[in-house]
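Troubleshooting log. The previous run stalled partway through. Resubmitting the same two chains, unchanged.
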Amino acid sequence: MQAKKGIAILGSTGSIGTQALEVIEAHPDLFDLQVITAKQNSTLLIEQALKFKPNAVVIVDDSEYQKVKDALWSEEIHVYGGADALNQVVEFKEIEVVLTAMVGYAGLEPTMSAIRAKKNIALANKETLVVAGDVITKEAQKYGVNIYPVDSEHSAIFQCLAGEFHNTIEKIYLTASGGPFRGYSMAKLRSVTKEQALKHPNWEMGQKITIDSATMMNKGLEVIEAKWLFNLKPEQIDVIVHPQSIVHSIVQFDDGSMKAQMGLPDMKLPIQYSLTYPNRVASSFPRFNFLDYPSLNFEGVDQSVFTNLQLAYDCLHVGGTSACILNAANEVAVDAFLKERISFIDIQNINQEALQSIDPIANPTLETYLEVDLITRKKVTEIIGSIS
Amino acid sequence: MQAKKGIAILGSTGSIGTQALEVIEAHPDLFDLQVITAKQNSTLLIEQALKFKPNAVVIVDDSEYQKVKDALWSEEIHVYGGADALNQVVEFKEIEVVLTAMVGYAGLEPTMSAIRAKKNIALANKETLVVAGDVITKEAQKYGVNIYPVDSEHSAIFQCLAGEFHNTIEKIYLTASGGPFRGYSMAKLRSVTKEQALKHPNWEMGQKITIDSATMMNKGLEVIEAKWLFNLKPEQIDVIVHPQSIVHSIVQFDDGSMKAQMGLPDMKLPIQYSLTYPNRVASSFPRFNFLDYPSLNFEGVDQSVFTNLQLAYDCLHVGGTSACILNAANEVAVDAFLKERISFIDIQNINQEALQSIDPIANPTLETYLEVDLITRKKVTEIIGSIS
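Second attempt completed without errors. Output:
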């Protein structure tokens, strides 16, 4: 019998985190949940801890610490508070895989800590690679750590590369649903509302990534993520709009053959694969049926309307801290949009302005990224103050 | 530097054979062409021999032997005549892979000889597995021989299984173009002509397989072939009509994930892969572009009109010599159709009648197959005589 795999989930109360717990619950013979963490949703974190009895929980928001501590005092569960605790819990020796499912830039430091503790990473926090792909991939190589993608597109590419790592990738196609505003003109995009932007046609996701999908920034971040995960040049990465979200992405090899990974849009599949790789495990996830989808459609992206995608490619060409600037600007802008302080179209304009007004720094260290992230947030907050 | 791979092509003058020679010509550093053979096209065989300078050629039709011998006397090329010579040339020690690209049942004995000589098989002759899959797969296992599929659908499945052989296949989908008569009613099918049947919408192939595509018998034979190649139950094999022939087939694993292999319809790709597996080799084959195919379509097969497909599934359930009967009946019927002695719809009716009037034999040996093949051909010839 196989030993159970020790798992830590950073961000267990979010969309990916809760689905990861469903996967773990379905396979008690395979997984040993060691750690779960949450930013501030103490109620759900407590509920999860009482159900799954992990070794430890972390509540990042210190003001919620006592509540969590009190609720779990009778259980043999260690309770920690504050962001720094994330860097320590990932070091537990029982952990084999750390699923990084926090939102945004906050994932960077704990991911780095997990890599340095020689834990394999199931990476759901794409911002980590977007901001600091250069440093992260070098550290992963240095510590002999594998990074298993959880994003459905990157999981698709990774699945298609099984048994093909010795072969040459000619290019990859990342598929994009196109989001709720596919086919919109710039004029039409100007008047969309927060409610419209939060209605993704195919995927149930958190608010930040749902807005990023609507602005195509999510696809831009994925292009950068793909560059680092699969060691590709910008011109080897193409984006194709596929409104049904059934074909999750495609690899084209140098013999011209293409492999695609397909299925109903369900994040539990890539989550499970990232935890069981190289094995697949029987699941009861609903199956795709061709007869329900008589037509799978594909079209180009209108980059003249959705300018975020081009900004991401620009960052790949410029390198250095430029993607860090783009990511920080976008996080602040999306937050302001969700607070209804700026319009939908302001998001991409602010991203562009941030990239134009802050000079990128070449060969950054982790410290450089932290600094550039702060500078960008300050700058973008000023820009937003001036327009809202 | 890698040693060149010794190749024999049985059926070098046919559609697959000539395309295989194009692949070999494009990679003189990879391949060492040892043997080419032809049934009766001595002119092309001579031309090929003078160009590629193989170690040996076989012309199966004895009446053409002297012509080939005379043409090649000044070259250091061994020339053999007659079908039995096929069984001997595959034994040459320099041969690593035997590409079986003959048409129909004639491929069975030389394939068996190649397996017994411990040569890996690049299998383009699906009838070998259709007729005698049980015996062939057992012998391949016994002699430690790999069978690499060349049929585009089976190559697609095989490519999708790279790196996944330890995982469980839930089912496979073989795609079918639907042929020139997709969507036809039985009434409409009654009046189709030979010229119409020979116009395949997507693939350039030999006459036999083109007719088999039009009658859906080809897909039925492929279902049987897939059963043996991938060790599947009938209910794990599904057929889906995909008129564009871009998605060449799909595997669904037990976690629900599906992998598809895609590309423009071009047999050179699966031929090359069968010769270079597990490596891919850079090619100049035209690339697929999503923007040229805004819609990929999928629909079910109307088995009430195209009854051949159901006959193939019936054979899988019955087992024994039933698929041998179906194949022999179909070969004779297609030949009669090409000679305009019977109508298009007669083909499937004759196949059905043959299966109903000849009792299948369980646990057949190779000799049983040879005998049943002969009996069936005789019976079907009588049936045709009575209606034409």
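Takeaways: The radius of gyration of chain A is 20 Å. The mean pLDDT of chain A is 96.
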